[in-house]
Design a protein that fits this description.
This protein is of the alpha+beta class. The chain contains 7 helices and 9 strands, in the order ββααααββαβααββββ. The strands form 3 sheets. Strands 5-9-8-7-6 form a 5-stranded antiparallel sheet, with helices on one face. The protein has a two-stranded antiparallel ribbon with strand order 1-2. Helix 2 (45-60) packs across helix 5 (104-123). The longest helix has 20 residues, at 104-123. It is globular.
Length: 215
C-alpha cells in the first residue's frame, strides 16, 4: 500500500499492529506492521499507554504497583505519576466490587486504530470511514450466549483478495471461516473476516473483548 491505512494520507512510517505497549517483551517475531503517516502513528501514543494501563488495572482491580502483573505497566507507572493519579481517581470500590470510570473516547480511538490496522494487514482492505459498530467490554461481563457468539469465528460469504493473508489462511482453514490469530499467547489475539459485514474482533490480556464492523 502506498498510503496511510488510517487516514489515506502519504506513507511516512510503519506502525505496529497491535501497538507494542499491549504486548510483553520479548516481542513476537515478525510483528504485523502497516504503512502509516507520521501523524497517525504518533498522535495516539498517550491514549495507547492509557488504554494498556487501564486494562491492567481493571484486570487486577488495583492501581498499586505491587498488584500490577505486567512489568511494562509497572515501568510506565514509575515514569508517569500523573497517569497513576488519573487512574486512581477513576477507581471506585463499593459493596458490589471494584470498577473504573473509562475515558471511552480515548479507548474508542485506540480500538478503532487497531481494527483498521488489522483489516488493512489481513484483508488488504483499508477502512478509512467510520465503522458501523464498535463495542468494548470485559469478557467476563458478557452473557454466555454473547460470549459464545463473540468467540466463534464469523462465516464469510466473500472470499478475501487473492494474495492477501486472509486468503492464505482461508485456503488452510475450513471454507468460509477466519480463525483467531494469536499474536502473543494470553496477551493479544484477533480475527478479521471479509464479511459481509467486515468484522474485526480483538481480545487483550484474555480480559477485554473488542468488536468492530464495517458494512
Amino acid at each position: 500500500m502506498a498510503f496511510c491505512v488510517y487516514c489515506g494520507g502519504p506513507t511516512e512510517t510503519r506502525d505496529h499492529v497491535p501497538s507494542r505497549v499491549l504486548l510483553d517483551e520479548p516481542y513476537p517475531p515478525q510483528l504485523p506492521a502497516v504503512p502509516a503517516c507520521k501523524l497517525c502513528n504518533e498522535t495516539l501514543s498517550k491514549d495507547e499507554v492509557y488504554f494498556a494501563c487501564l486494562i491492567e488495572c481493571a484486570r487486577v482491580g488495583s492501581v498499586s504497583a505491587q498488584a500490577i502483573q505486567r512489568e511494562k505497566i509497572r515501568r510506565i507507572f514509575q515514569e508517569s505519576p500523573a497517569l497513576v493519579v488519573r487512574l486512581t481517581q477513576a477507581r471506585t470500590e463499593t459493596d458490589n466490587g471494584i470498577s473504573f470510570a473509562v475515558e471511552y473516547e480515548r479507548v474508542k480511538k485506540v480500538v478503532l486504530k487497531l481494527g483498521r490496522g488489522h483489516v488493512a494487514f489481513e484483508l488488504n482492505e483499508p477502512k478509512h470511514h467510520e465503522p458501523h459498530t464498535l463495542s468494548v467490554g470485559p469478557l467476563m461481563c458478557m452473557p454466555e450466549d454473547v460470549y459464545g457468539y463473540f468467540e466463534t469465528p464469523p462465516h464469510s460469504s466473500i472470499w478475501p483478495e487473492v494474495g492477501s493473508r486472509a486468503m492464505q489462511r482461508f485456503v488452510s482453514l475450513n471454507p468460509g471461516s477466519a480463525g483467531w490469530i494469536i499474536v502473543q499467547p494470553g496477551q493479544y489475539r484477533y480475527l478479521a473476516s471479509a464479511g459481509p459485514p467486515v468484522v474485526v474482533r480483538i481480545v487483550i490480556s484474555e480480559y477485554l473483548g473488542c468488536a468492530i464492523t464495517w458494512n
